[in-house]
Amino acid sequence: MTDVFELKMCVICIGYAFLATMVYDFGHTWLLWKKAHRFVQMLLDVITLSILGIAFTILIILAGGILRWYLLAAVCLGVAGYQLSIKKLLRKFYFWLFQKAAALWKIVTFPGRKAAGCIKKYYKKVKKSCEKNDNYTGNMPLDDI
Predict the structure, then answer these.
(1) What region does 52 belong to: left with phi over 0, alpha with psi -120 to 50, or beta?
(2) With contact defined as beta carbons under 8 Å apart, do 71 and 10 qualify?
(3) pLDDT, tens digit only, all 145 positions of the chain
(4) N or C: less crowded end of the chain, CB within 10 Å?
(5) What is the Cα–Cα distance from 109 to 114, expressed in whole angstroms?
(6) What CA–CA distance (Å, rounded) separates 115 from 95?
(7) What angle do CA 85, 89, 94 make, to 5 degrees?
(8) In sequence order, which residues have a C-beta less than 8 Å from that of residue 33 and are 6 or more positions away?
Protein backbone atom coordinates (compact mmCIF):
# COMPACT_ATOMS: atom_id res chain seq x y z
CA MET A 1 0.00 0.00 0.00
CA THR A 2 1.16 3.47 -0.75
CA ASP A 3 1.41 6.23 1.80
CA VAL A 4 -1.21 8.28 -0.01
CA PHE A 5 -3.69 5.38 0.12
CA GLU A 6 -3.01 4.88 3.83
CA LEU A 7 -3.51 8.58 4.51
CA LYS A 8 -6.75 8.50 2.51
CA MET A 9 -7.93 5.52 4.58
CA CYS A 10 -7.12 7.42 7.78
CA VAL A 11 -9.24 10.36 6.63
CA ILE A 12 -12.05 7.99 5.65
CA CYS A 13 -11.87 6.28 9.07
CA ILE A 14 -12.01 9.64 10.85
CA GLY A 15 -15.08 10.62 8.81
CA TYR A 16 -16.68 7.21 9.34
CA ALA A 17 -16.18 7.39 13.10
CA PHE A 18 -17.55 10.94 13.21
CA LEU A 19 -20.68 9.97 11.26
CA ALA A 20 -21.11 6.66 13.10
CA THR A 21 -21.03 8.49 16.42
CA MET A 22 -23.65 10.93 15.10
CA VAL A 23 -25.91 8.01 14.10
CA TYR A 24 -25.43 6.29 17.45
CA ASP A 25 -26.10 9.54 19.33
CA PHE A 26 -29.27 10.14 17.30
CA GLY A 27 -30.64 6.72 18.26
CA HIS A 28 -29.59 7.08 21.87
CA THR A 29 -31.17 10.55 22.12
CA TRP A 30 -34.39 9.17 20.63
CA LEU A 31 -34.46 6.46 23.30
CA LEU A 32 -33.90 9.08 26.00
CA TRP A 33 -36.69 11.23 24.55
CA LYS A 34 -39.07 8.26 24.45
CA LYS A 35 -38.02 7.35 28.02
CA ALA A 36 -37.42 3.76 26.97
CA HIS A 37 -36.70 1.07 29.52
CA ARG A 38 -33.04 0.41 30.32
CA PHE A 39 -33.18 -3.08 28.81
CA VAL A 40 -34.57 -1.72 25.54
CA GLN A 41 -31.84 0.94 25.50
CA MET A 42 -29.17 -1.67 26.06
CA LEU A 43 -30.57 -3.99 23.39
CA LEU A 44 -30.82 -1.26 20.76
CA ASP A 45 -27.34 0.02 21.67
CA VAL A 46 -25.93 -3.45 21.07
CA ILE A 47 -27.76 -3.74 17.75
CA THR A 48 -26.60 -0.29 16.61
CA LEU A 49 -23.01 -0.92 17.63
CA SER A 50 -23.08 -4.30 15.88
CA ILE A 51 -24.27 -2.72 12.63
CA LEU A 52 -21.64 0.01 12.90
CA GLY A 53 -18.99 -2.64 13.65
CA ILE A 54 -19.96 -4.60 10.55
CA ALA A 55 -19.68 -1.40 8.49
CA PHE A 56 -16.22 -0.78 10.00
CA THR A 57 -15.19 -4.34 9.15
CA ILE A 58 -16.26 -3.78 5.55
CA LEU A 59 -14.23 -0.57 5.55
CA ILE A 60 -11.16 -2.48 6.78
CA ILE A 61 -11.67 -5.14 4.09
CA LEU A 62 -11.76 -2.40 1.47
CA ALA A 63 -8.52 -1.04 2.90
CA GLY A 64 -6.72 -4.29 2.19
CA GLY A 65 -8.04 -6.57 4.90
CA ILE A 66 -5.43 -5.76 7.53
CA LEU A 67 -6.34 -3.81 10.65
CA ARG A 68 -3.56 -1.33 11.30
CA TRP A 69 -2.98 0.64 14.47
CA TYR A 70 -3.30 4.00 12.76
CA LEU A 71 -6.79 3.08 11.49
CA LEU A 72 -7.88 2.43 15.08
CA ALA A 73 -6.23 5.70 16.10
CA ALA A 74 -8.14 7.47 13.31
CA VAL A 75 -11.43 5.98 14.57
CA CYS A 76 -10.64 7.14 18.11
CA LEU A 77 -9.79 10.57 16.77
CA GLY A 78 -13.10 10.77 14.87
CA VAL A 79 -15.12 9.75 17.93
CA ALA A 80 -13.23 12.20 20.16
CA GLY A 81 -13.69 14.94 17.58
CA TYR A 82 -17.46 14.46 17.64
CA GLN A 83 -17.65 14.19 21.42
CA LEU A 84 -15.62 17.35 21.98
CA SER A 85 -17.01 19.48 19.18
CA ILE A 86 -20.72 19.21 18.42
CA LYS A 87 -22.26 16.55 20.66
CA LYS A 88 -24.07 18.97 22.99
CA LEU A 89 -25.32 21.11 20.13
CA LEU A 90 -26.60 18.13 18.15
CA ARG A 91 -28.22 16.58 21.20
CA LYS A 92 -30.25 19.78 21.74
CA PHE A 93 -31.08 19.83 18.03
CA TYR A 94 -32.23 16.20 18.16
CA PHE A 95 -34.55 16.90 21.11
CA TRP A 96 -35.97 19.94 19.28
CA LEU A 97 -36.43 17.85 16.13
CA PHE A 98 -38.24 15.09 18.03
CA GLN A 99 -40.60 17.60 19.67
CA LYS A 100 -41.45 19.21 16.32
CA ALA A 101 -41.93 15.80 14.69
CA ALA A 102 -44.27 14.75 17.53
CA ALA A 103 -46.30 17.96 17.16
CA LEU A 104 -46.54 17.44 13.40
CA TRP A 105 -47.56 13.82 13.95
CA LYS A 106 -50.39 14.94 16.26
CA ILE A 107 -51.64 17.36 13.61
CA VAL A 108 -51.49 14.78 10.82
CA THR A 109 -53.19 12.04 12.84
CA PHE A 110 -55.87 14.29 14.39
CA PRO A 111 -58.68 13.27 11.97
CA GLY A 112 -57.95 9.58 12.53
CA ARG A 113 -57.86 9.96 16.29
CA LYS A 114 -61.11 11.95 16.23
CA ALA A 115 -62.81 9.28 14.08
CA ALA A 116 -61.51 6.53 16.36
CA GLY A 117 -62.97 8.35 19.37
CA CYS A 118 -66.38 8.57 17.68
CA ILE A 119 -66.25 4.90 16.75
CA LYS A 120 -65.34 4.00 20.31
CA LYS A 121 -68.33 5.98 21.69
CA TYR A 122 -70.68 4.33 19.19
CA TYR A 123 -69.25 0.89 20.04
CA LYS A 124 -69.91 1.46 23.75
CA LYS A 125 -73.53 2.43 23.03
CA VAL A 126 -74.07 -0.62 20.85
CA LYS A 127 -72.46 -2.89 23.44
CA LYS A 128 -74.67 -1.47 26.19
CA SER A 129 -77.73 -1.95 23.99
CA CYS A 130 -76.73 -5.54 23.26
CA GLU A 131 -76.31 -6.24 26.96
CA LYS A 132 -79.87 -4.98 27.54
CA ASN A 133 -81.15 -7.27 24.78
CA ASP A 134 -79.31 -10.24 26.27
CA ASN A 135 -81.58 -9.99 29.33
CA TYR A 136 -84.67 -10.46 27.12
CA THR A 137 -85.88 -14.03 27.59
CA GLY A 138 -88.65 -14.05 25.01
CA ASN A 139 -91.39 -14.95 27.57
CA MET A 140 -93.56 -11.92 27.01
CA PRO A 141 -97.36 -12.05 27.10
CA LEU A 142 -97.52 -11.02 23.44
CA ASP A 143 -95.47 -14.08 22.44
CA ASP A 144 -98.31 -16.41 23.49
CA ILE A 145 -100.75 -14.99 20.95
Answers:
(1) alpha
(2) yes
(3) 678 888 888 888 898 889 888 988 888 888 888 888 888 888 888 888 888 888 888 888 887 888 888 888 888 899 898 889 998 999 899 999 999 999 999 899 888 888 888 888 888 887 777 776 666 555 555 554 5
(4) C
(5) 9
(6) 30
(7) 130
(8) 94, 95, 98
